[in-house]
Predict the 3D structure of the following.
Amino acid sequence: PANYTNAPTDAGSDDTKDSDLLQGWTGFTECFDLTSGQNRTDIDAGFVPDGQTGGDLTLACSDDITVTAPFGQNTAVVSWTEPTATSTCAGGATLNQTSGPMNNQPMAIGTQTVSYSASDNCGNYQTCSFTVTVEEGQAVTPGSIGDYVWNDVNENGIQDAGEPGLEGVFVMLTDCAGNWKGQTTTDASGAYHFANVAPGSYKVKFVGPQGSSPAPTNAGSDDTKDSDLNQGWTGFTDCFDVASGQDITDIDAGFIGIAPSAVLTLNPHADMNVTAPDPAGTTVTWTAPTATSTCTTGTVTVTQTAGPASGDNLAPGTYTVSYEATDDCGNTETTSFTITVTYNGPAVCTTRTITDLTQCNGSTQSTFWAEDLIYGMSNISKNYHLVNDGTFTEYEDGTAHFTGVVVNNTNSNAKFALDFTLTGKMATGNAHDAYCFNADMSDWYYYSDMTGTITGMGDLTGAVINGVHSMYVPQIGTGANLHQNVFGFTSWVALDVVSQPDNGNITLDDYGTAHGDLNFNLSGDASTCAPAVTTCAVRDVWDAYQCDVDLDFGFFAYDFIDQFGHSATETHFEEKGNSIFTEYSDGTAHLTMKVRSHEDWDVKFKLELDFSGRTFTTPSDANSNEYGCYDADNSDWYYYTNVTGTITGLADMQGAQIEVWNVMHPFQIGTGAALWGDWNDFGGTTWLGYNVISQPNSSYYSLSDGGQMDVNIRMSGNASACGGADYAAASDRIMDLALEQDEFTADLTWQNNTGDINEYFVVQRSTDGINFTPIAQVESAATLQNVTSTYTYKDAEPAEGKNYYQVIAVTRDNKKFVSNKTEAIFGNRAEITLFPNPAGEYFMIDLLPYKGAEATVTITNQLGQVVNTISLDEVDAAPLRVSLDKFINGYYNVQVQTTDGRSTSKKLVVARMY
């Protein structure tokens, strides 16, 4: 054609595709032969537009394609990559599909040919083709992939015996192109599993513990024991195929560089409830929690991290003691327990310091005196002084308690611990005057009873002595220590050896005759705790006279006095003036009376008797007609249920000391109550048992034990002087509180026998056992003294945690008797909620059960390491949000610990996408 020139001749290797036209102006091909019947179809000519010549055209088709139709369907979508056509000719190549199904479209089951052609502006032309086959689909069964992630301790890439699995390792399943197909974490044994896996090609990614790296890959000959994880940073295995229904159980991953795995167990210590004998507290001891670890290296260390030390003296209150255990595998465990020290005794009136006195000679210090007590130790003095100051505590219920440690003045290896309790505080008593000065007894007061123990220490360890006051009641006041005119204390003590020292060379007097003295100084003065009582009657005392004999007497004794070995079967004593019976508003009384024998006027005694428990209710053991002199009208009689005291020898009886107490009957007082004399004489009677403490100085007389004494006296006044109120003896009062609880309430029950002297009861509650708040007032229902009545109260709204209760009986004259304390625990533990769980970028903690509390949230990883701590001054009602930005995937423990001792924990799973 015009404006064209001949194309290149014989280009390429395919003679059917080249141009046979010779270059030049002739327009001829070369000469060729044509045989008989031959058809030549390869004599071609190509022309190139003017200005464009040559060019190289290429066309490349896809390989043959085979796809499988879904099971039960006749077609399948087929797709392929379009062929590539390129040309060096200007304008490039043009590609056209000339036959076959279309790309990315459904095709019926069978085989078809797909053809393409390409051409360019230089006249080049190319074709290519490939086949597409759609096969009939077969039924497909899902398979599974698993197996095991372990700590390759010896770093050989093989699962050896004793190498533990790793819990909480993140595992992700993808196809071979890296598209996500699922994720999980390993369980406690290190196993993982993907179920319902469709047939196809996959690879697995493992994210090991922080600081670890993959173990050697494909080590050894057993594919079930090696690690399939490629070494390097990708964390993937090689790609592998899963056939229909195939369960693959050998895709394992080992990690190296991990501290030896171990389980650390810290055994918790139970909470302790301790009752203190004194409001100042008590010494509390415990054994530290024990811990064990499966770690094969090093030792386990248990360290106390918070709270008081074992052996400390703890005041009433609640204490939290915390311990931490660690092992050489990096594990850490903590535990805490509470110690609740409760003082259940009465309210404290005052606490005094005990110090040594200086005896009358001005040089000997002493607190405890004992003679002929210790045998087998040399250089033993009668006097013992304090090692450190002692403590003397007085209570509002009329009791007291003191303790101290004393050491012998001349042998420091002889020590005793003193521990005594006093009861029945009284305004009056049979006082003993000072030894070396005239004491003003105006501020003195007394206790009706004292008991305790004296425990050996030093070389006397193992010895125990019971002590009981004797002769005179314990006395307190200025000069009452008998040696110095300062505020102090004195009591005489009868000693009873219970056990001997462990040292067999030393013995203590065990004949029951040993006596001691307790004399010491006290801080403070009488104004802080002296009994507040008033006198309701002061009565003159005279002899009663025997109804059938013209004989007056106020005191009578049987088988009492021996003279030159001859016993006086009956001894009558007459009152010798200035005898007084004084009654007080607190239901106590005191008798001072001097008497002499009718038979021998130089046989004289002084009686000092203390009375308590005044009652206008006739006791069952009262006696209205012992001697038959008359039938007494006892309508105005009243009684004292407890009588104690001393009888001191005078004149020829000088040196004699006798302790006495009432026997058989109470002391009765009223018209005709003396049982002798006239029926309308106002008087009183009591029967006494006695114990001779010391004999008269004169050897002419001796006193014998085992008899009986009577006091029969007439008195001035009448029965109305002290009103009609009943009083329990100090040792007989009942104020017992018991508690039962259910899930939400505390049921209190108490018994009381102080009768109609009660005005009401106050129920009190405390959360620390020290500071009590009234929660209810219960009216007294009793009308009789010494009749035990039962009262109840239900606390329907106890506080969360520990609740302490006590009940106070308030009398009409504003005295207060305090019950024992009881306790109950409510709502000691509450659960927390974590969400979402598993969590990715953050999680929330619902702390509503701990609203308002001060708490600490501690998060630890699967190795027991603390990874986050959150301190909360006051827990809010709204959930707490915690970021997981710096957390790796795995298991974590979230623990909440409050300052009031509550604790709980939950497990958290972190599964973040990287």
